[in-house]
TrEMBL record:
The keyword Signal applies. It comes from Desulfitobacterium hafniense (strain Y51). Keywords: Signal, Transport. Coiled coil: none annotated. PANTHER family: OLIGOPEPTIDE-BINDING PROTEIN APPA, PERIPLASMIC BINDING COMPONENT OF ABC TRANSPORTER. Belongs to the bacterial solute-binding protein 5 family. It comes from the Bacteria. This is Solute-binding protein family 5 domain-containing protein. Residues 77-421 form the Solute-binding protein family domain. One of its GO terms (cellular component) is periplasmic space. One of its GO terms (molecular function) is peptide transmembrane transporter activity.
Length: 523
């Protein structure tokens, strides 16, 4: 049924395009300002569940809701709803003053009661919006809200940029498909996994959108490209392998992102945990394997082969982030990598091109998500590149559910957030086995744990950043993760559509992040 509806939508769009075309097939309106656009930017924009209290907005932008703080230019936190805030000397109390001109899309004023309600509701739910550090939140008056933490938690300010404020007077269990926030856009029509039609929130306190209507369609790769070629779409997300395909009237838009394709390398030998789940890996648990991979691979070549060159090689968290250590070493050191393996006893004694040690082949199965072709292609390109080292990688396309086996079978993850808490989640030993992404390398280093605790307890960002950088330098010696590339997100954009730069590195968000500043787009 959904496919039939989408075909009807596309047929209607084609009819409109045909009716507007003349003069040898050229669109007579192509040079005229438009007040409506139609786009396709990945599956998640029309998936529904636009509820910040259940985690919407943590991994990608939320254009329906306002936030106390926002990550903006140069990846720095700035005020959004907040006009000012103070942090107590002990790092336990955050007092916020909020603006008095914010209104929800129904015209109802946003007050500190809505802020308190949002965070209380979010805290009560287990989601990606982690508020376990929050003890209480209280609305002191209409424009003052106070957060009290259980212990100092320096990254809490980033949590405040991830949770959009919902209206207390309208919130219910169905809110996720009918959001009524105070952001730039409101929902005019929504059919889950089919289409989403947006119109401006006339009450928004920021720049009011210039387009009166935006239609967002869910289309698979082939259908989206075909629709773009026939002139039906003003913007379309395309995989890197199709990004160079010429389309009349459209240009390529390349968006850099902070997200990195990163492979966890289990640091412990294979065993079974108390729950009966297989964890650890007998190959990657050898530090020599991890170190040889890290310096021996050619990230630039992998990027070219997997992503047609649409990406930036990376060696850790994006160096543009204030808390990152940046690039700490060079790769493609093939001979040095081979020596590390030889010295550790990994030798090819049977001449099959694959090293072995203690009757264990240097053979690693690595999964790439089946619904993210770019990840799988990166694993395939990595497998081809490491043959020169005498290591065999077997790529495996797997659904997200199978990625729960990552503590045993290395997996290609997407790591990248403005919030340094991700370093804690991936490197702190207390996070091993917590949810799906809790330290999938089973990495333990008491020195790193101690530095992370200092970073979390810091009461100012400069002090915290110093500790985060120290932790990265310590962990870099052990290589629990193989950072490879930050893929660019590629779109075809119709000539005439102007998209201002975000002036920062957004998250990849599987294509969603392009709409973060859609209220500033113009024709």
């Amino acid at each position: 049924m959904r496919k039939i509806v989408l075909l009807l939508l596309l047929a209607g769009l084609m009819l409109m395009v045909g009716c507007s075309a003349s003069n040898g097939g050229k669109n007579i309106t192509e040079n005229v300002a438009k007040d409506e656009i139609t786009i396709s930017a990945g599956v998640n924009l029309v998936a529904g569940g636009f509820d910040p209290t259940t985690g919407y907005g943590v991994w990608a932008p939320d254009i329906f809701h306002s936030h106390l703080l926002q990550v903006k230019e140069n990846n720095q936190l700035v005020n959004d709803l907040a006009t000012s805030y103070d942090i107590s000397a002990d790092g336990l109390t955050y007092t916020f003053k909020i603006r008095n001109d914010a209104k929800f899309a129904d015209g109802h004023s946003l007050t500190s009661e809505d802020v308190a309600f949002t965070f209380e509701t979010t805290k009560s739910k287990a989601s990606a919006a982690d508020l376990t550090m929050l003890d209480s939140v209280e609305a002191l008056d209409e424009s003052t809200v106070v957060f009290r933490l259980k212990a100092p938690w320096s990254t809490f300010v980033f949590n405040l940029s991830e949770v959009g404020i919902v209206p207390k007077h309208l919130y219910n269990e169905n809110y996720g498909d009918h959001p009524m926030g105070s952001g730039a856009w409101k929902v005019a029509e929504f059919a889950v996994d089919q289409k989403l039609i947006l119109v401006p929130n006339e009450h928004y306190y920021g720049p009011i959108p210039k387009f009166k209507k935006v239609t967002i369609l869910k289309l698979d790769e082939d259908a989206a490209l075909a629709a773009a070629k026939s002139g039906q779409l003003d913007l379309v997300l395309v995989e890197s392998e199709f990004a160079s395909t010429p389309v009349d009237g459209m240009k390529l838009y390349r968006m850099s992102a902070m997200d990195a394709f990163t492979i966890n390398l289990p640091t412990i030998p294979e065993t079974t945990d108390p729950s009966g789940q297989k964890v650890g890996n007998n190959v990657t648990s050898d530090p020599a394997i991890r170190k040889a991979l890290n310096i021996g691979i050619n990230r630039q070549l992998i990027t070219q082969n997997a992503l047609n060159g649409f990406g930036q090689v990376t060696y850790g968290a994006a160096k543009e982030l204030p808390w990152s250590n940046g690039d700490m070493f060079k790769d493609n050191q093939v001979e040095e990598a081979k020596k590390i393996l030889e010295d550790a006893g990994w030798k090819d004694t049977d001449g099959d091109g694959i090293r072995e040690k203690n009757n264990i082949k240097a053979e690693i199965v690595i999964t790439g998500r089946s619904n993210d072709l770019a990840r799988y292609n990166t694993v395939v390109a990595l497998a081809e590149d490491v043959k020169k080292l005498g290591i065999q990688i077997i790529p495996k396309s797997a659904p997200w559910s199978e990625c729960r086996e990552a503590r045993n079978l290395p997996t290609c993850w997407v790591f990248g957030q403005p919030n340094p808490i991700e370093f804690y989640r991936y490197y702190d030993s207390s996070q091993i086995g917590v949810a799906v992404i809790g330290n999938p390398a089973s990495y333990t280093n008491p020195e790193v744990d101690a530095v992370i605790q200092k970073a979390l307890a810091a009461t100012n960002s400069d002090e915290a950043n110093k500790y985060w950088q120290e932790g990265q330098a310590l962990a870099q010696k052990d290589i629990p993760y193989l950072w490879i590339v930050r893929p660019e997100v590629t779109y075809l954009v119709k000539e005439g559509l102007k998209i201002p730069s975000l002036q920062k590195l957004p998250t990849r968000g599987q294509g969603i992040s392009i709409v973060e500043n859609m209220n500033e787009w113009s024709w």
